[in-house]
Amino acid sequence: MVNSRVEVPTVAVMGGGGGTAGRSCAGCGGRIADRFLLFSMEQYWHTRCLKCSCCHAQLGEYSSTCYSKGGMILCKNDYIRLFGHSGACSACGQSIPASEMVMRAQGNVYHLKCFTCATCRNRLVPGDRFHYINGTIFCEHDRPGGGLLSGHPTPLQTNSMMSDQKVC
Predict the structure, then answer these.
(1) Contact at 8 Å (CB) between 60 and 13?
(2) Residue 65 near residue 9 (C-beta atoms within 8 A)
(3) CB neighbours of residue 58 within 10 Å
(4) At a CB cut-off of 8 Å and minimum separation 6, what does 74 contact?
(5) CA gap 117, 109 in Å, rounded
(6) For a tag on the chain, would you pick the N or C end, based on fewer CB atoms within 10 A?
């Protein structure tokens, strides 16, 4: 399994004629006797079996690119939606391992250790309320200009942790 972004060209369409007899599909396990088959991530697939784990688009028809991370096979749109454009933490810029839990805010993805308040530097944990203002994370108590309404802070946004494995 590839634990990083796998790109162009990751899906190769091959003729099902000579040299491919007896190949098994990585998706369904069945013998591939079709006229065409796909080769992706060092495995052979029926054209109908290589699908995005989230949207179930048939990747051989949809694109010549697919991504693999965290045990999922993804189309480009779902990869970007789940892991961001670079697969890197928005705070530190380092790669995020496929198995690592992450925090998200406004389409940005963070290591758990990097998801901290810009003012007090306290790490925010799942369930904590926070505010995301102009690309900066603040805990509930340190929001700039955070006046009280009826004795409660005025929330701009509440987010919680999301596992890369549970997003589809």
Answers:
(1) yes
(2) yes
(3) 17
(4) 52, 53, 54, 66, 67, 68, 82
(5) 15
(6) N
Q: How far is CA 136 from the centre of its chain?
A: 22
Could you identify the residue written with the tokens 């006797």?
33
The CA-CA-CA angle for residues 148, 114, 142, to 5°, reads 15
Question: Can you give the pLDDT at residue 118?
Answer: 94
Whether residue 83 contacts residue 109, with contact meaning beta carbons closer than 8 Å, is answered with yes
Answer yes or no: is pLDDT of 122 > 70. yes
> Which pLDDT value is given to residue 63?
65
What sign does the dihedral 136-142-145-146 (CA atoms) show? Answer: positive
pLDDT at 162 over 50: no
Number of other residues whose CB lies within 10 A of the CB of residue 42? 8
Instruction: Retrieve residue 130's tokens.
Output: 């926070």
pTM here is 0.48
Query: What are the tens digits of pLDDT across the range 12-41?
Result: 555 555 455 578 999 999 999 888 888 888
CA angle, 23 as apex, 19 and 26 as ends, to 5°? 140
Which residues lie across from 130 on neighbouring strands?
139
Average pLDDT over residues 4-11: 40
Residue 115: CA atoms inside 13 Å, Cβ hemisphere, count?
Answer: 25
